């Protein structure tokens, strides 16, 4: 491609873009914003996007998944069947047609693919089956930001598998897991597969694929000694569920704590350590209030609360509910003397406490020497807190550390979550109707582009991994007005095209400094510069990542180029 004819509108400044990937994609002329969270992919960006898509297709096809294309518009009736019309939340784009019929703009396609298969597959003989698509998705993000990392319109690969039994699902899940490992390795990401929560998708058994980056919104718990990794929402805290034997303690005592609401304020006022206090937080799980207890120096994990109760939606109770049940405002709530009975859940660490300090369920008061069993009863105990750095690894006992990550992929074992709700069934080998057992597997294709830049850049611009670079070689003629340079550059451009090398030829009548600055910004892996020694048949070859360079004849360049390309990803 000749750069003088290309739509590559580079910029020096891009205003308030915060993320590195957002700034560089805008500056390099890869994308342009149309509205908040909505972007146009310009030619260079579109080439990168297609490189990622090509890798995804190759790995999906390799494991026998079939590509199809499903509609963007989803009849509301399907989402009512699954129960997600109400439960998905405000991120679901909802529209009405001229006949006032309601539709959703697909953020994901579980309902649509289930509807398709229940009408087309009626026998176990056709199972298992895996189908995938690469398509634009829509989510009405409250605060779309960070460019391609969190948009309202984005490109996603979503795949779905249908099975007659769990063993078959497990095998496909393993195949998909392996395919994802290959995809993100080929794309050039430093990533980890982590245990995760299924969220609004539903289902049990899931992993997220996280590109490690300080720009990531997710916190990942990683063991220093083994390969354990989990999203903070799902990271297991090692603990004994059994209640310890309780030795007698002093009688419960109410003390005044005027204006002291937070754990830190109460601990300082009473001259005790935060771990001697218990946080008592009221949640609603599927509309039912529950009281959750964690140690004062720990944080409640609402995903674990939801999963322990096998619920769909878990939210902090509003202040009106808190006052009705506890008789006091948040900050003074405790498990003793509630105005209305509620289910009480306690974290393992609370169950091991012999005595504790809790809210007194009245303003400006707390209770000392509270004991489980004597003063209140726990209905359910479990792992209900966020893991912390320094905690023991649940697999090997090593030390947990935190890293930040960008979610680029997610695989789920859905089970019968959708097939049961939507009556999607097949006949088994005994002629009996059974619900499909399903899996779901997603990759954020456009997000992967941004994640790659977050990991591969320097102060001068992008450093594309070879596999997804828009072009492999950036050919620069320093001065196109110079006959020797122009002649040699044109000949080299022709030879590279004959060899099937993807090359961007900077034949613009621009100053050399502008060309080199743009080349660093665009980040194409290999640069060939035709400059002052063109009359001698010599050019410079240089690797964008390592900076390694060498002066070679044109013949040597053509001979050695494959080896230079192989080394282009090395630091």
Automatic annotation (TrEMBL):
Catalytic activity: tRNA(Pro) + L-proline + ATP = L-prolyl-tRNA(Pro) + AMP + diphosphate
Keyword terms, alphabetized: Aminoacyl-tRNA synthetase, ATP-binding, Cytoplasm, Ligase, Nucleotide-binding, Protein biosynthesis
Name the UniProt record assigns to this protein: Proline--tRNA ligase
Keyword DNA damage: no
The Aminoacyl-transfer RNA synthetases class-II family profile domain, residue ranges: 37-465
Record bears the keyword Signal: no
GO cellular component: cytosol
GO molecular function, one term: catalytic activity, acting on a protein
Biological role: Catalyzes the attachment of proline to tRNA(Pro) in a two-step reaction: proline is first activated by ATP to form Pro-AMP and then transferred to the acceptor end of tRNA(Pro). As ProRS can inadvertently accommodate and process non-cognate amino acids such as alanine and cysteine, to avoid such errors it has two additional distinct editing activities against alanine. One activity is designated as 'pretransfer' editing and involves the tRNA(Pro)-independent hydrolysis of activated Ala-AMP.
Subunit structure: Homodimer.
Record-level GO BP terms: prolyl-tRNA aminoacylation
Record EC number: 6.1.1.15
Localization per record: Cytoplasm
Domain notes: Consists of three domains: the N-terminal catalytic domain, the editing domain and the C-terminal anticodon-binding domain.
Family: Belongs to the class-II aminoacyl-tRNA synthetase family. ProS type 1 subfamily.
InterPro entries registered for this protein in UniProt: aa-tRNA-synt_IIb, aa-tRNA-synth_II, aa-tRNA-synth_II/BPL/LPL, Anticodon-bd, Anticodon-bd_dom_sf, Pro-tRNA-ligase_IIa, Pro-tRNA-synth_IIa_bac-type, Pro-tRNA-Synthase_IIa_type1
């Amino acid at each position: 491609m000749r750069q003088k004819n290309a739509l590559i509108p580079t910029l020096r400044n891009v205003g308030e873009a915060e993320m590195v990937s957002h700034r560089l994609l805008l500056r390099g002329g890869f994308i342009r914003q149309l509205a908040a969270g909505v972007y146009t992919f310009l030619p260079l960006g579109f080439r990168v996007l297609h490189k990622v898509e090509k890798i995804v297709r190759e790995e999906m096809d390799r494991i026998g998944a079939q590509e199809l294309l499903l509609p963007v518009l989803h009849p509301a009736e399907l989402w009512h069947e699954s129960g997600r019309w109400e439960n998905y939340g405000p991120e679901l784009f909802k529209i009405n047609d001229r006949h006032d019929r309601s539709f959703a703009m697909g953020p994901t396609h579980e309902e649509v693919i289930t509807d398709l298969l229940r009408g087309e597959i009626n026998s176990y003989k056709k199972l298992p089956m895996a189908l995938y698509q690469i398509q634009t998705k829509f989510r009405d993000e409250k605060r779309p930001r960070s460019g391609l990392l969190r948009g309202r319109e984005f490109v996603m690969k979503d795949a779905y598998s249908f099975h007659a039994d769990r063993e078959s699902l497990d095998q496909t899940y393993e195949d998909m897991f392996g395919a994802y490992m290959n995809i993100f390795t080929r794309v050039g990401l430093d990533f980890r597969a982590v245990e995760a929560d299924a969220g609004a998708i539903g289902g049990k058994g899931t992993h997220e694929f996280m590109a490690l980056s300080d720009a990531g919104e997710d916190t990942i718990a990683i063991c220093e000694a083994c390969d354990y990794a989990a999203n903070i929402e799902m990271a297991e805290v090692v603990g004994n569920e059994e209640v310890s034997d309780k030795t007698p303690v002093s009688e419960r005592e109410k003390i005044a704590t005027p204006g002291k609401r937070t754990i830190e304020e109460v601990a300082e006022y009473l001259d005790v350590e935060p771990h001697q206090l218990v946080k008592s937080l009221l949640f609603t799980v599927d509309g039912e209030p529950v009281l959750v207890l964690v140690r004062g120096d720990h944080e409640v994990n609402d995903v674990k609360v939801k999963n322990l109760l096998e619920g769909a939606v878990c939210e902090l109770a509003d202040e009106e509910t808190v006052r009705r049940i506890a008789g006091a405002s948040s900050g003074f709530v405790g498990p003793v003397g509630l105005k209305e009975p509620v289910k009480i859940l306690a974290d393992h660490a609370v169950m091991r406490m012999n005595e504790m300090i809790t809210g007194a369920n009245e303003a400006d008061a707390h209770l000392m020497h509270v004991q489980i069993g004597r003063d209140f009863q726990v209905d359910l105990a479990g792992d209900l807190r966020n893991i912390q750095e320094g905690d023991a690894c649940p697999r090997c006992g090593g030390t947990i550390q935190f890293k930040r990550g960008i979610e680029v992929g997610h695989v789920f074992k859905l089970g019968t979550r959708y097939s049961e709700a939507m009556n999607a069934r097949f006949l088994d080998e005994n002629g009996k109707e059974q619900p499909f057992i399903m899996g779901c597997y997603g990759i954020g294709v456009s997000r992967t582009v941004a994640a790659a830049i977050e990991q591969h850049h320097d102060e001068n611009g992008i450093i594309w991994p070879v596999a997804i670079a828009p072009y492999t070689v950036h050919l620069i003629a320093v001065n196109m007005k110079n006959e020797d340079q122009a002649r040699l550059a044109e000949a080299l451009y022709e030879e590279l095209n004959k060899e099937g090398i993807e090359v961007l030829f900077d034949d613009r009548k621009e100053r050399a400094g502008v060309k080199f600055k743009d080349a660093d910004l665009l980040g194409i892996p290999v640069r060939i510069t035709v400059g002052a020694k063109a009359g001698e048949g010599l050019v410079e070859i240089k690797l964008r990542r390592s900076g390694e360079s060498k002066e070679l004849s044109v013949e040597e360049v053509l001979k050695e180029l494959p080896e230079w390309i192989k080394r282009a990803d090395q630091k």
